Amino acid sequence: MAKETVKAKKFVAPKSKFNKTYFKRYWQLYALLLLPIIYLIVFKYLPMRYIIIAFKEYKLNTPLSKMPWAGTKAQTDALKYFKMAFKDIDFKRALWNTVKLNLLDLIMGFPAPIIFALILNELCFKRFKKVVQTIAYMPHFLSWVIIASLCTQLLAPTDGLINQLVTHLGGKSIPFLDDPSHWVGTYVGAGVWQNFGWGSIIYLASIAGINTELYEAASVDGAGRFKKMWHVTLPGIKPTIVVLLIMNLGYIMGGGFERPWAMKNNLVIDVAEVISTYVYKVGIQRLKISLTTAVGLFQSVVGLFFLLTANTISRKLGERGIW
After folding, report:
1. What angle do the packed helices 111-122 and 180-208 form, to 10 degrees?
2. What whole-number distance in Å separates Cα of residue 259 and Cα of residue 178?
3. Backbone angles phi, psi at 56, to 5 degrees
4. Contact 250, 301 (CB under 8 A)
5. 245-293 residue pLDDT tens
6. pTM of the model
7. What CATH number should be reported for the domain whose range is 78-316?
8. Could you give the CA distance from residue 123 to residue 136 in angstroms, rounded to a whole number?
9. HSE, side-chain direction, 13 A CA sphere, residue 150
């Protein structure tokens, strides 16, 4: 008599029942997500409908749906304000300054937290390491108004502490805040100083997740501390570096308002005017809302393009990317 093989079938719970059980078990996590989701919807997604102002003639007392399209009465020109922006010399200058300052920030500021995290990881004395971390984090919690005031007190051409020391030693006063080229260096340096300590937190967390057996194997192979850092630590945090680099590339056309506004002055306005300050002066002070909405839309689209391009390149090179 032939033996019949009976295959035991695995019992699979219905999908809907499984989802309900999972939700009941982890409902607290979904509750924590509720407030951020509401914030995104109210302050990020709902205002997107006002992007259409870039293609219309803005009138304060007129509902959005009744605003006329940009152009003249005889001919509609939806791209009127985009063309106007690119004919404006001030916007071209602000666009160039935004790209230049953000690229310098990326070149000088992006490696700084990586290097700092690698150095901290090599420190043996835990108490000293904690003190250094705390001191490095502190500038992140200072507003740019305070940092600009510190720069004025320290770097002013005549009565600044640094220049007083330089002239006392027989040197010549350095125009940190008055000369355009020196101001750019001061601007970038202040940004690196404020952010490198805080930015190192992510890299330190990534380093902590590296398998310690890799270091032990490297020690067996005769690797020193520098070789361990080069062949173990850096490859271990490479995915984190790539993701953060992609995200930073998305801000090439962005940048905050507080930093350039607090640090600029009339002597360096040619290199200090960026898109955010241009939008404030033209849109808020002169009430050219349609023009600045067009500028903001252009800025966002170009930033999205940089983000998508960087992510695509990283994926083709074998990295994980953002998605």
Report:
1. 50
2. 16
3. -130, 165
4. no
5. 888 888 888 878 899 999 998 899 999 999 999 999 999 888 899 999 9
6. 0.83
7. 1.10.3720.10
8. 15
9. 13
